[in-house]
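LOG
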Amino acid sequence: MQAFRQGSWSQYSDPDKLEIQIFVDETDIGQIKTGQEVYYSVDAYPDKTFKGKITKIYPEPVVKQNIVYYLAIVPVRKEYAEFLRPEMTVYTKIIAGTKGMPLLSQTLQ
C-alpha cells in the first residue's frame, strides 16, 4: 500500500536544514507513521529519485479548500541539497506498507 502526495519545501536560514512538508489527507493519515520511507522527485530532475524518512507528523490539522490535511516532515539529506531548492514542487511516495515476495510458478512439460 502506498500513499501519494504532493509536497512543498521549507527552509531555515541554514541551507543544511532543508525539509519537505507533505500534506497528508485525513483519509490517509491513519496509514502514515514517523520512520516510514519516502521517495520523492522534482520536475527539474525528472530522472532522479530522492529518498528520506518521515521524522514528524503534526497533530494539528491544516485546512485547504475545505479539505483537512496533516503535515508530515521529511528532512532533506545533505547530499541532495546541491540539487534541490526551496519552493520547488515535490512529488512524494510514502511507503505505507510492503507485501512479501511474489511466488514464481514454473510450467512443467
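LOG (cont.) second protein
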Amino acid sequence: MARVFSAAGIPVREGYGMTETSPAISITRFDKGYAKLGTVGPAIDGVEIKIDTSEENIGRRGEIIVNGPECDAWLLQKTR
C-alpha cells in the first residue's frame, strides 16, 4: 500500500509506538534521506530509545527501553 501511495506522489509516514507510549516514539521524516519505506524513522523530539543488550537478554533480540514525556507512568508502576 505504501509503495502505491508513494508511486502516486502521496507522502507516506510510518512510525512505531505502543499503548504505553501513546501515540508514537518514532516516525519517518520527509527530509532528504529519511523517507525510506519499511522503516519507522528516528525518535521523535524528547524521546530516548535504547535496546537492552545486557547479559539478561543474551540469545534474545533485546528489549526496547523508552523514556520520554509520552510514556505512561501509571502503567509502568502497575507492571513493577
